[in-house]
Design brief:
- By secondary structure, this protein is an all-alpha fold.
- The chain has a two-stranded antiparallel ribbon. A two-stranded antiparallel ribbon has the order 3-4. Strands 5-6 form a two-stranded antiparallel ribbon.
- Helix 38 runs parallel beside helix 40 and helix 50 packs across helix 52.
- It is found in: Nucleus.
């Protein structure tokens, strides 16, 4: 250190050596810390850290004269420039910058694997500096850390291009900011008495106690009080932080002591400034007095300097530390230059005031640490916390998810120290922004950041409530769970939470979540909020005579307030049902068994809630409110919810008819609107549910209730109320024992009304049909058991048939609805032929939407009724006598006897129902899908029949339909994976047809709202949002089976097989394009997946491409020769001049129809009597053709310039069949190339892949974002010879591209056409290439070519011109004829293209 102090020019070398020493330290979080901090128990730092701090202390350039001054006059003799202290501060900063610059340069220069070790070394160093921060002997720690923060906030850290550097900077800044915030909180919570006393002096009206300690305000006599001789205040010795032995009669508190010292120093300096020389150097005495008023901060600083003067060390380190403090304070004080002498004398005040009768510091070290902490809060380092926090919040918006996660973790540890940070607006905006982060883990961490402090800071929860509530609908399951828990904590931690009702609405909305664990969490939350018996709470009752405890009444009001803001009570019904069963507990608790006491407790609270609701209904009525029904509706809906789950809750044992008697008068209301209709419907439902549980009703109640119900059936305008009245009336007739008399009377009334021909009121007809159907449905048990037999159901059906053929559409729909009511009661009629025709017609695709909806609704209600009846009959059958051993109990469905009738009915209309599940109307699809769900649940049909339709519905634009279809497929895949896999191909075809139909319908109706169009995966090609939705739906299906290797391989193979020999139709090309896009969009996660897809593509190409290429080549040659012969026959014998002209001037036509110079064609090698079939073999021309036998070699020359003749329909069909197959193979080749580029697969990797080998563990799959472009593939079917030639050339080009290793390609590389190979000279022998026919080697790379016997080039034909345009010889066509000879045809065997 002495060298560092004495030789300033060598300081950089010493710093370099220190940095090298740092790199040699062991890399561990628990690095060896052998330097013990003085007077600090259990605190140690590394030796290199202690050395760094001492070097920085020494760099302050303490003047030697001041260091060795022993008297006050010798201090004044020290000659310093006014800017000397500023230069000392610059030297300190320069040393710190030099050190950190060397460290950060080393960090950026090392490799990635070494950067982690250096980061640990830096973290250890920062931890040591934070340990010494705010200790009185280590002021350099703050400045060293401040310089580090400045560098990390610039290009060396957060603004660096290196992600690892930014990540390291965030970690270090988070550590430092957390320490700063911790110190700030500690200083704010535990103020030292000196600071409090100085703050109180600023208050004019402040007074201190006369008989108690002014620190602790304790008046106990047992503790000795000491009075300060300066301010006359009383203190306990231990309260001042001093030592009791030093308290005597002339005792001064530390404030008065320091103030007296400073006044003496001012007087001393003032006297010296009056000397001639001093006045000129330091300014006038008057200006000095003005600048040197004793301030509060000077008193605090002087206590620290006094402590350092008492801590004398052998190496004068206390003087360096004091001088260091002066440099820091001098920089922050604008008036320092005017009082340099005064500040210097403060360093050695004991030399000046030694004989003034004042003693020095009596404060303990703990007291000095508190003073140092308070002084540190005024430093520029502490003020930099806001800047650090701002930059960390800015890092939350980084593109890199790693940086965002690091920044969020850094902010989290800061908030952990002081949750009040969350109330800052900038912090709130940044954290709420991470609620919507693209990464689920980041969203969950952001919620966790807020959720940890909800209980301790309820106001913070209220501030973040709105954004947290939005996350309750998040796509991530863990995020939704965390949001629910946070909102629950908000409700439970704050009894006066103003958003309680909104919170309940948000939580209960997830009771129907797709994830069962979230459903359980929601039910458990409401169990804790409403249904759990509070422990340790004394039961109290309200003063209005209610028998319901106040606590239960409060919970009930919370339920009602929630219902007041909800559309219906369906979700509450689910919550009540599950809480009464307590089926949301963990599986471990269910295994042990639910405690019966808990079940009884919940049931008792529900009964009390129902009783409280009934009391509140009466209280609202007593208010005489004009809108009584509106105010009472939420209470009735709450009571309805409990009654739906368990009607016995509304049948108290003390008075079973209490609820019926109380609610029955409300049926007399004359108001007729939607709110009242909902109100009456709920009341009637409650009465209807309670009536069967009442043993005996008084006749007056029965008569009055019957009269009210009959009146509402006749007058109420809302048919839902009429429906409830008819059902309740039938229940009342059954319970009261009156039989079917009332029901039969009403049936006859409506039957006569409908049978009359003079009725012109269509609305009255519809109402009568509706009522008649419901009366027969619910009154069927009474009618069947009646002895009068006045009602004939068959005649009613005939009546409905008559109205079904009426012109008025509303009457037709109402008649179909009434017919459905009767068929629910008498399902055997659905097996009759005439009813089957009616239902088949209404369920057909050409039927009107309303008719289809009504027919499906009839089937759906029948299934629900059959299911409920099965449960009822099962319970009744258990009570019957046991059946013999040879018999079995057959449940009854809807009163129809055997349950097989239900399955038979559904199977009879199953095809119609499945057809409607893919209807163009989304409401029809939704209803049909609900039927499919119920049918699968009851097991009425074979599950395999609906798999293709569910696969198609995965792509439904209506989200509820796609979710339900996915859920059903997921369940089916778990139970019947073989069914799922076997029908995948049919489902894919059906999905395309369905979405194509939707797309066409949307184009016909431009005003119809379309589903949003996702980002196009196909470049340069228009695609509708419907087809994109279909591809995404198939990707979701793939995710279901991705975990099973066999299943996913079957999935991909089944799609690839669609390209093998496709059948020509109007939609086949669009379907193949769709399949290609689907395969390109599959969410692959392991290399085994794209490799197997490439393997499957190679198998199809190997089998198909050889024969297809030969067919197309043969067809091109056949059509060209036929055209030449036709031209020859039409023109007769060619003239010699014309022949010479053609030989000398006209060349053959190549594939681009460009004329070339060619050699004469050997006639013997091109027999015009021969023809090619589609397999490339020769066959004779039909005998009807007259063929010239001229052996003139120039005939063929003329043939080559003749345009092809018009194509027959058979020719076009053959062309289109081959071109369709070629298009399919081209799409597979495009897909193969795309997969190689996107997943970085080269030939060698594809070659070594074997589908039967187990996948290698730990293999990662990297994916590039590259658009899949099939726009250059011609998809229209050809109709001309030129189209055929072009398609043939396209196929050859695609095959040539398949020989390239696409791992070298990137997304922005534009492929160029390969340069043609140099043609052999005229007459030079050409060689023929052949592929090895190795079908077993399906995993090879590019095909292997072998040279065969050279063939003699004899003449030029169209085929020869085609050879010139190729990059490889005829053998590369992998099959087909080679020479136009009458004896033989050279063919090539197909070889495996396995690249």
């Amino acid at each position: 250190m002495q060298i560092f102090l004495s030789y300033t020019q060598h300081r950089s070398y010493i710093v370099d050596e220190l940095v090298q020493l740092l790199w040699k330290l062991p890399v561990s979080k628990r690095a060896l810390r052998s330097y013990h901090l003085p007077d600090e128990d259990q605190k140690q730092i590394q030796m290199v850290t202690a050395l760094l701090i001492q070097l920085v202390h020494s760099s302050a350039n303490l003047p030697e004269a001041l260091r060795h001054a022993t008297t006050g006059h010798s201090i004044l003799e020290v000659s310093l420039d006014a800017t000397y202290i500023s230069k000392c501060h610059e030297a300190i900063t320069e040393t710190c910058c030099l050190f950190w610059t060397r460290v950060l340069q080393r960090f950026t220069a090392v490799k990635a694997q070494d950067s982690a070790e250096l980061k640990l070394l830096m973290e250890n160093l920062v931890t040591d500096l934070l340990t010494t921060l705010n200790l009185p002997e280590y002021p350099a720690s703050a400045l060293i850390l401040e310089v580090l923060c400045v560098l990390l906030l610039q290009n060396a850290g957060l603004k660096s291009k290196d992600v690892s550097a930014r990540s390291m900077a965030i970690d270090l800044l988070g550590m430092i900011a957390t320490s700063l915030k911790h110190d700030s909180v500690s200083c704010r919570q535990e103020k030292f008495w000196i600071l409090q006393a100085l703050d109180s002096e600023d208050d004019v009206g402040c007074s201190f106690p006369k008989d108690a300690c002014c620190v602790c305000l304790d008046r106990r006599v047992g503790k000795a009080l000491f009075m300060c001789q300066g301010c006359n205040r009383l203190f306990h010795s231990d309260c001042t932080g001093g030592r009791e032995c030093e308290a005597n009669q002339n005792w001064h508190c530390q404030i008065c002591l320091c103030k007296k010292q400073l006044m003496v120093l001012q007087s001393f300096c003032n006297m010296q400034c009056k000397d001639n020389g001093r006045a000129n150097r330091y300014g006038s005495a008057k200006s000095f007095e003005t600048a040197n008023m004793v301030t509060k901060i000077e008193i605090i600083q002087q206590t620290l300097l006094n402590f350092l003067q008492d801590s004398v060390s052998a190496d004068d380190m206390h003087q360096f530390i004091g001088w260091f403090y002066m440099c820091l304070w001098y920089k922050d004080d604008s008036k320092s230059e005017q009082r340099l002498t005064y500040d210097i004398t403060r360093l050695k005040s004991n030399l000046v005031v030694r004989d003034s009768g004042t003693s020095h510091s009596m404060l303990t070290r703990d007291s000095m640490k508190k003073i140092t902490l308070a002084l540190g809060q005024n430093s520029s380092f502490a003020r930099g916390f806001d800047k650090i926090l701002h930059m960390l919040l800015a890092s939350l918006r980084e593109n890199s998810p790693v940086i965002r996660a690091k920044a969020l973790r850094a902010v989290s540890i800061i908030v952990e120290t002081d949750p009040e940070v969350l109330r800052d607006k900038s912090v709130q905006l940044a954290v709420e922004g991470r609620f919507c982060d693209s990464a689920i883990s980041v969203r969950e961490a952001a919620l966790e950041l807020v959720g940890r402090h909800i209980a301790s800071h309820p106001d913070v929860g209220l501030q973040y409530f709105e954004k947290v509530a939005e996350r309750i609908k998040d796509t991530g399951v863990s995020v939704r769970k965390r949001a629910i828990k946070i909102i629950r904590d908000m409700c439970t931690s704050n009894a006066n939470f103003t958003q309680f009702t909104t919170a309940c609405i948000e939580i209960i909305s997830r009771v129907s979540d797709d994830e069962s664990s979230i459903q359980d969490l929601v039910c458990k939350t409401f169990f804790e909020l409403w249904f759990q018996e509070p422990s340790g709470v004394q039961t109290t009752f309200s003063g209005d005579g209610s028998s319901v405890p106040l606590e239960v009444a409060k919970k009930t009001e919370q339920i009602v307030e929630m219902l007041r803001r909800m559309a219906n009570n369906h979700l509450l019904v689910t919550v009540v049902k599950r809480n009464l069963a307590l089926d949301f507990f963990p599986q471990s608790a269910k295994a042990v068994g639910i405690n019966p006491m808990s079940l009884a407790s919940v049931r008792k609270r529900c009964e009390l809630m129902c009783k409280c609701i009934l009391e509140r209904i009466l209280q609202v009525e007593e208010m005489n409110n004009t809108e009584e029904e509106v105010q009472t509706l939420p209470y009735v809906l709450a009571l309805h919810s409990f009654c739906v789950v368990d009607p016995t809750l509304c049948v108290p044992s003390s008075d079973p008819s209490q609820f019926v008697v109380t609610l029955q008068p409300y049926l007399k209301t004359q108001v007729d609107n939607r709110v009242v209709a909902q109100f009456l419907e709920s009341i009637i439902f409650i009465i209807d549910s309670v009536l069967p549980l009442i043993r005996k009703l008084t006749s007056s109640i029965v008569e009055e209730l019957e009269q009210d119900l009959k009146q509402m059936i006749g007058r109420h305008s809302f048919l839902t109320v009429v429906h409830a009245c008819i059902k309740c009336l039938c229940t009342l007739s059954k319970v009261s024992g009156k039989g079917a008399s009332v029901i039969e009377f009403l049936i006859q009334v409506f039957f006569r009304r409908l049978d009359a021909q003079t009725i012109e009121n269509k609305q009255l007809i519809g109402r009568s049909l509706f009522c008649l159907g419901l009366l027969i449905r619910y009154g069927n048990p009474l009618i069947s058991g009646s002895s009068s037999k006045n009602i004939d159901v068959g005649s009613s059906i005939s009546l409905f048939k008559k109205y079904l053929i009426m012109d008025d559409f509303s009457v037709k729909v109402r008649s179909l609805q009434a017919l459905g009511f009767i068929l629910i009661a008498r399902p055997e009629y659905m097996l009759e032929k005439d009813i089957g025709k009616i239902l088949g017609a209404t369920l057909s695709s050409s039927s009107h939407v309303r008719l289809k909806m009504q027919a499906l609704q009839n089937v759906y209600e029948y299934l629900l009724d059959a299911e409920s009846q099965l449960e009822t009959d099962k319970a009744s059958n258990d009570a019957q006598n046991s059946v013999g051993a040879g018999q079995r109990v057959v449940p009854v469905a809807a009163g129809a006897g055997d349950t097989n009738i239900c399955g038979g009915i559904i199977q009879l209309y199953w095809d119609h129902i499945l057809g409607r599940s893919l209807d163009l109307n989304e409401e029809v699809r939704q209803t049909a899908l609900k039927i499919v769900e119920v049918v699968l649940k009851q097991g009425l049909v074979h599950p395999i029949t609906c798999v293709p339709y569910l696969i198609a519905l995965e792509s439904d634009p209506l989200e509820s339909n796609s979710k339900l279809a996915h859920h059903l497929l997921m369940n089916m895949n778990e139970k019947y994976p073989a069914f799922f896999e076997s029908r995948l191909g049919d489902g894919l075809q059906l999905s395309y047809s369905f979405m194509h139909a939707l797309s066409c319908t949307s184009n016909e109706k431009p005003n119809q709202r379309l589903p949003p169009k996702s980002a196009g995966n196909s470049k340069g090609k228009y695609e509708t949002g419907a087809l994109t939705q279909a591809r995404l739906g198939v990707s979701r299906i793939y995710k279901l089976i991705r975990g099973n290797r066999v299943s996913r391989n079957k999935f991909m193979s089944s799609i690839v097989r669609k390209f093998d020999n496709p059948v020509r139709s109007d939609s086949v090309i669009g379907f193949l394009l769709h399949c290609t896009e689907v395969l390109a969009l599959l969410p692959f996660t392991v290399p085994d997946e794209p490799l197997y897809l490439i393997y499957s593509i190679n198998r199809v190409i190997q089998v198909r491409v050889g024969a297809l290429e030969a067919n197309m080549k043969g067809l091109v040659l056949h059509l060209a020769e036929r055209a030449a012969r036709k031209a020859h026959y039409q023109n007769g014998l060619l003239q010699e001049e014309a022949t010479q002209l053609s030989v000398g001037q006209v060349g053959s036509m190549d594939l681009n129809h460009m004329a070339k110079e060619e050699e004469p064609v050997d006639r013997a090698q091109s027999n015009p009597l021969r023809n090619f079939d589609l397999n490339g073999t020769c066959k004779d021309e039909p005998p009807g053709h007259s063929v010239s036998t001229s052996s003139d070699p120039n005939t063929t020359r003329h043939m080559n310039i003749v345009e092809p003749c018009s194509l027959s329909q058979d020719d076009i069909n053959r062309i289109q069949v081959d071109c369709l197959a070629a298009t399919a193979l081209q799409l597979l080749l495009k897909l193969k190339r795309h997969l190689k580029i996107v997943y970085g697969l080269n030939d060698s990797r594809c070659q070594v892949f074997l589908p039967n080998e187990p996948p290698k563990p730990g293999e990662n799959l990297s994916r590039q974002t590259v658009p899949f472009d099939v726009s250059d593939v011609r998809t229209s079917l050809p109709t001309t010879y030129q189209d055929l030639v072009q398609r043939y050339q396209d196929l050859k080009n695609a095959l040539k591209e398949d020989t390239v290793d696409y791992a070298t390609y990137t997304a922005n590389i534009k492929r160029k056409r390969p340069t043609p190979r140099k043609k052999p000279g005229r007459g030079a022998p050409a060689s023929q290439d052949m592929y090895d026919d190795d079908d077993a080697n399906l995993t090879g790379g590019s095909a292997v070519r072998k040279r065969t016997t050279p063939r003699k080039r004899i003449g030029r034909t169209l085929a020869d011109d085609m050879d010139d345009d190729d990059d490889y010889d005829d053998a590369d066509w992998m099959g087909g004829g080679r020479r136009l000879t009458g004896s033989s045809t050279r063919g090539n065997r197909s070889a495996g293209r396995q690249r």
